[in-house]
Each structure stands twice: as C-alpha cells, then as structure tokens.
C-alpha cells in the first residue's frame, strides 16, 4: 500500500497544540483575560517538576463548571471534540535568570504562530494595546493590511485574523490556527489526512503556498481554492506553510521546537480510540516514534514523528492515569 492509503483507525481528532511557557500566571492571564479562553484543565506533576494547563475557546455563553485538575475536568479534556492550547510549565522558569523559550520564526524554524479570529482586527488591536500587549505587526503596517501579529508573554506570535463574515460567531475571539512550516506538502498533507483531517483551503503564491487542514469535518471539500470554506468555522485550522523549493533541497530540514537551546513549540496531539492500533498504522509511514506506546514510564501514550520531525502525541480518548496530583472535586 502507498502511504496515501494509510488510514489511522479509532476516529482521530486534533485535540491539542503544546507550547512551553515560562510563567503560568502571565500566560493564563493573557489567554483568559485578553484572548477570551477558558482554563478547562490542569495537571500538576510536582514529582517531575512541571505542570500543564489546557485552555480553549468555548462557545459564547457556555458556562464551564468543572474545576481544573479534578478527575471530572480530565474526563472532559480527554473526550472533547475541540482543540486546546496545552501550556507546559517547567518549574523554575518563572524566576529571573531564565533566558526564555524560543518562539520560532528564525531561519529554518518550523513553528510559526497560533491565531485567533475576530470580526475586526483594528478594534482587536486597540483592545490588546489597552491591555499592554506588544505587537510585531499592527493591521496597517507592512504589505498585508488588516492582518496583525501580537506577542504573547513568551514572545510567541499570535496572529489576529479577520473573519470573512462578521456576526456569525458571537465570541469576540476564537482560537483559530496553529501554523507550522513543512518541507514537502504532499507528504505532510498525506500524513495529516490519514488522521481524518480534511484539506479545507489552499493558496499558492509566487514563492510560498499555504494549506488549511481541519479535524472533525464531515464532508470532503470540493473546491479547496475557496477561502470561504473556513467561514464561520469555530474550531482551529492546522495551517501548513510551504516555502517553495525546500522539497528539492536534500540538506534542508526544519527545527521542530524540541532541540536544546531552541525549545518552544512542543507538539500537536490527537485523541484516538486505541493508541496501539493507531500506532500500528502510523508506523507504516516510516517516520518513526519519539516514544512508542509502551516506551518510558507512561504506558499507553505515544509520540510519533511527522514527515518534518514534528512530534505528534497520540492519546487514548478518555485519557489514562497520568500520575498527576489531582484536585479533590
């Protein structure tokens, strides 16, 4: 079978994008109070000296009543159909003297940005400026008018994207993109389509192309050149950016965010019904594993490599007992 025939079993759904953060108080405040996310869960591992915080956009008006860190919140997290930002805090990085994480966007860096959609990027920029947020690019700067890039507390780029049709999504902001750069889009699209993702939109410029992939989409998209395919979409897009020519350069590779001295972006992750059967199918691609399901101390959890060497976490739907110190419900 060719790699285009591989289908990962167990209904994979894109569930997380992981970023390392230096100071959870600052990052949670930014994504909650400024970007409108909800902290849906947290995991504390004092024995390993790190904590995880999961944040996402919930539909406007939806009240979240669970307490992060409880088994009930864990049950919600590992069965959700949407996609969360996973913020990883290694103890001690919040103290002065930590040199900071690597936000990407330097030569050969793979990770690009996360994004939030809004009805009006100019109004959103004013709102962020009023909250003391710094910008890489305001909507009127540069060639691309109307697009803005803010910096989160760790210096990750947060793109502000105007919704095609205002008033469809009542949320002021919704988490809408994770962008990574890929060397060979044919291989990457095949890989992510095997996880049930659908190509929603593609754009081809003179020297670069972008491909928008989405999880939990019922039907194939007939015309992938129409940006309107993503209009009104609440959940995020995995945006694959291809700089033309990299696919023919045998020496070229992207940094994946997990190298020493360049750590920042960590991985994206999928929920599946059965990790072992999913990994059997993933293994056919031949890109290898950072962690096999039975490797290490966490049994039943895997990290596969995608064609660029990005880590892709494979988590069983419903979760496992991760050994975190839970909050009593």
Task: List strands and helices in order, with pairings.
Layout: E1 13-21, H1 24-34, E2 38-45, E3 50-56, H2 71-77, E4 84-90, E5 111-118, H3 121-130, E6 135-137, E7 148-151, E8 157-162, E9 174-181, H4 185-193, E10 198-204, E11 208-214, E12 237-243, E13 265-272, H5 275-283, E14 289-291, E15 302-305, E16 311-316
Parallel strand pairs: 1-4, 5-8, 9-12, 13-16
Antiparallel strand pairs: 1-13, 2-3, 3-4, 5-9, 6-7, 7-8, 10-11, 11-12, 14-15, 15-16
What does this 3D model show about the protein?
It is a single chain. By secondary structure, the chain is of the alpha+beta class. Helix content is 14%, strand content 31%. The chain contains five helices and 16 strands. It has helices at residues 24-34, 71-77, 121-130, 185-193, 275-283, and strands spanning 13-21, 38-45, 50-56, 84-90, 111-118, 135-137, 148-151, 157-162, 174-181, 198-204, 208-214, 237-243, 265-272, 289-291, 302-305, 311-316. The strands form two sheets. An eight-stranded mixed beta sheet has the order 2-3-4-1-13-16-15-14, with helices on both faces. It has an eight-stranded mixed beta sheet with strand order 6-7-8-5-9-12-11-10, with helices on one face. Strand 7 and strand 8 (157-162) form a beta hairpin. The radius of gyration is 19 Å and the shape is globular. The chain starts with 12 loop residues before the first strand and ends in a 13-residue tail after the last strand. The model has no long low-confidence stretch (mean pLDDT 96).
């Amino acid at each position: 079978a060719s790699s285009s025939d591989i289908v990962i079993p167990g209904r994979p759904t894109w569930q997380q994008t992981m970023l390392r953060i230096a100071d959870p108080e600052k990052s949670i405040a930014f994504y909650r109070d400024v970007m409108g996310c909800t902290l849906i869960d947290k995991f504390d591992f004092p024995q390993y000296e790190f904590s995880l915080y999961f944040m996402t956009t919930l539909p406007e008006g939806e009240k979240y009543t669970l307490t992060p860190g409880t088994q009930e919140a864990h049950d919600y997290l590992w069965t959700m159909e949407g996609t969360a930002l996973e913020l990883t805090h290694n103890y001690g990085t919040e103290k002065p003297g930590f040199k900071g994480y690597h936000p990407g966007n330097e030569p050969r860096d793979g990770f690009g940005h996360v994004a939030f959609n809004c009805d009006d990027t100019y109004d959103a920029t004013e709102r962020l400026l009023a909250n003391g947020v710094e910008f890489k690019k305001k909507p009127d700067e540069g060639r691309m008018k109307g697009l803005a890039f803010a910096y989160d507390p760790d210096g990750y780029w947060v793109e502000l994207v105007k919704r095609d049709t205002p008033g469809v999504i009542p949320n002021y902001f919704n988490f809408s993109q994770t962008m990574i750069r890929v060397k060979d889009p044919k291989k990457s699209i095949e890989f992510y389509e095997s996880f049930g993702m659908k190509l929603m939109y593609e754009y081809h410029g003179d020297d670069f192309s972008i491909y928008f992939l989405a999880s939990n989409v019922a039907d194939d998209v007939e015309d992938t050149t129409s940006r309107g395919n993503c209009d009104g979409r609440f959940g995020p897009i995995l945006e694959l950016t291809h700089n033309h020519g990299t696919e023919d350069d045998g020496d070229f590779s992207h940094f994946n965010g997990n190298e020493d001295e360049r750590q920042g972006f960590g991985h994206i992750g999928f929920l599946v019904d059965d990790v072992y059967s999913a990994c059997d199918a993933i293994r056919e691609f031949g890109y290898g594993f950072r962690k096999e399901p039975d490797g290490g101390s966490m049994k039943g959890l895997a990290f596969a490599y995608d064609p660029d060497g990005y880590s892709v976490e494979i988590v069983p739907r419903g979760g496992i007992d991760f050994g975190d110190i839970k909050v009593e419900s």
